[in-house]
Amino acid sequence: MSIQLAKSEFQILGCFPVISQLRPHFEEAKFLEQVRYQMKEGYQIAFLEIEEQAVAVAGFRISTCLALGKFLYVDDLVVDELKRSQGYGKQLFQWLIEYAKNHGCEHLSLDSGVQRFGAHRFYLMERMRITSHHFGIEL
To answer: How far apart are the C-alpha atoms of 109 and 77, rounded to whole Å?
Structure first.
């Protein structure tokens, strides 16, 4: 079992079966192109691998803002639905925290869809707090 950053096309595409469970609107054919584009803006993918298969995936970026200072923002965090409740999400989440600390971040934050009750339980158990409401509008 290891956690690493996806760098190669093979590693990025190996994360697709898991991340598509969170982002089902994405087509595999466009996934690599989109990830490579986002990587130019600082996006990275970390994945927990067991027996050469990704079972937990996190897409994230490091940024800075007036409200938080330097922070790690988690765009995507998902564990394969057949592998949940086995501690893989906790391991990947702890890895993200250590990564953030090692890169001088003062905060780790994420948004979670209001319907994702299981994810909310997980985040609260990991000592995260609900610190704001996120508002959006389609343009």
So the answer is: 12
